[in-house]
Design a protein that fits this description.
rod-shaped, EC 2.7.13.3, disordered N terminus, alpha+beta, 467 residues, phosphoprotein, membrane, Heat Shock Protein 90, Helix Hairpins, Beta-Lactamase, 5-stranded antiparallel sheet
Length: 467
């Protein structure tokens, strides 16, 4: 084989046209079900806590204001009555006793006294209004008199005005530190409960998603879900999914067995037919045509067998350079086929050597069949590869007419044989389907795209060995 005139090798790294979207684009990451459920439950619980707190405050303000006003009014009335009905000597002693025992201070109210009204919040304003109702409109409730802070209540006795100073804690806030602690504890427990509920909802769905992904990859044995869970709805879903996976596994096994059986049963009569043809047909041209037809039938059987292969294999380290060189060598000595390879030296991937060579043989066969230049009749095939992180990207392209963009996704479907531009097809339409399945079995990805400079390009992403 005059390989120098047909195949050229370059071991230097080369630029590789960006692989199409199916190989490189990652799906956009949205918010997971766990966090969505957690956020919704958190909002719900937070709203409930706020509503409860507002309700409590609303129900607490009025009774507390009324109670505080009653106590303060009683202090003022008792002090007023004691001062009115006691003589001068007893009045002095009474004022000292009230200051010592009850913390009350009674002082005359001068016209030039300065004061600030006790209106720091809704509760204090409500208490002041209640005191005015009970003690008279001339009642003044202040929080500071002449620069001295405290709870000051101005009242009158027979036309004389007095100040009563008492402890401001008699009008206390609705919620102190204790309420804040309990509120924080309730919020923490609510968030913890929300996380547990979200996880309880998310866990079976996450397992179902994993099992569905294993079924999609053809691993039916690893997709079994627990059929003894406590929740009846989840148990029914798991049972239904397991039965579906078992049914799909049975269908896949029957399909593979049927294709393998048909292919196997056809080989024996074909071998006899070929032998009889070579012995009984005297016309060499007719015998050659009949032998070619039999070879084509054998090739179709081989395609069926390849397509019916099991979906699992044990990946090993494979030399990509040797595999590609062997696939190109198998093309033969056709002067109208020119292959140009640009490979990085000693590129190794994880896969199966036989499967990988079958992949590249199918792609080269497809390129030779459909990538021929209609004017010169010569097929130009370019093969390039490069490493990227833990992967190896391989691009194999021809310089033919390509295919219509809307048909690209259908090229890997079994028995699809292209559009009118590629109607000279004589194969089964399984070649690219076999390639896609084989690449998937090796943990890689495969995509087809029309090259920007003409022709069809096959992009393969394989796992890099040692990573």
């Amino acid at each position: 084989m005059d390989s120098e005139s047909r195949v050229s090798f370059e071991t230097e790294p080369t630029t590789l046209e960006t692989a199409p979207a199916p190989l490189e684009v990652r799906p956009t990451r949205g918010v997971s079900l766990f966090w969505r459920t957690f956020f919704f439950l958190t909002l719900l619980l937070t709203g409930c806590i706020i509503a409860w707190l507002q309700t409590f405050r609303a129900l607490e303000y009025e009774p507390r204001a009324l109670q505080s006003a009653q106590q303060l009014a009683s202090l003022v009335n008792l002090s007023r009555a004691a001062l009115v009905h006691s003589d001068a000597i007893a009045r002095v002693s009474l004022i000292k006793t009230l200051a010592a025992e009850e913390g009350l201070r009674i002082a005359p109210r001068e016209p030039n006294d300065t004061y600030k009204l006790y209106d720091v919040d809704a509760l204090s304003r409500n208490v002041a209004a209640q005191l005015e109702t009970r003690l008279g409109r001339d009642t003044v409730v202040a929080r500071e008199v002449n620069g001295q802070p405290g709870l000051w209540i101005g009242f009158g006795i027979d036309g004389d005005q007095y100040w009563l100073l008492t402890d401001p804690s008699r009008i206390g806030p609705v919620a102190g530190t204790t309420w804040l602690i309990w509120l924080g504890t309730a919020a923490l427990l609510s968030l913890t409960g929300a996380a547990l509920i979200a996880r309880l909802i998310n866990r079976p769905l996450k397992k179902l998603s994993f099992a569905a992904s294993r079924v999609r990859e053809g691993d039916f044995n690893a997709s079994q879900l627990n059929e003894a869970v406590a929740t009846s709805e989840i148990r029914e879903v798991n049972i239904g999914f397991n039965r579906m996976a078992q049914r799909l596994s049975k269908i896949e096994q029957d399909r593979a067995l049927m294709l393998a059986g048909i292919s196997h049963d056809l080989r024996t009569p074909l071998a006899r037919l070929r032998l009889e043809t070579e012995m009984s047909v005297s016309d060499p041209q007719a015998r050659e045509h009949m032998s070619a037809d039999i070879e084509q039938v054998n090739a179709i059987i081989d395609k069926f067998l390849d397509y019916a292969r099991p979906d699992h294999l044990k990946a090993t380290e494979v030399s990509l350079n040797q595999t590609l060189e062997a696939a190109v060598f198998a093309l033969g000595d056709d002067p109208n086929t020119v292959v140009k390879m640009r490979l990085e030296p000693d590129t190794r991937v994880m896969g199966d050597a036989v499967e990988l060579q079958r992949v590249f043989s199918n792609l080269l066969e497809n390129a030779v069949r459909y990538g021929r230049n209609p004017d010169t009749g010569v097929v130009h095939i370019d093969i390039a590869c490069k490493t990227k992180d833990d992967a190896v990207l391989v691009k194999l392209r021809d310089h033919g007419r390509g295919v219509k963009p809307e048909l690209l996704e259908q090229l890997t479907q079994p028995f699809f044989r292209g559009d009118a531009a590629r109607s000279d097809a004589t194969g089964t339409g399984l070649g690219l389907a076999i390639v896609e399945r084989a690449i998937a079995r090796m943990g890689g990805r495969f995509a087809l795209a029309n090259s920007s400079t003409g022709g069809l390009a096959a992009h393969i992403k394989l796992r890099r060995a040692g990573h």
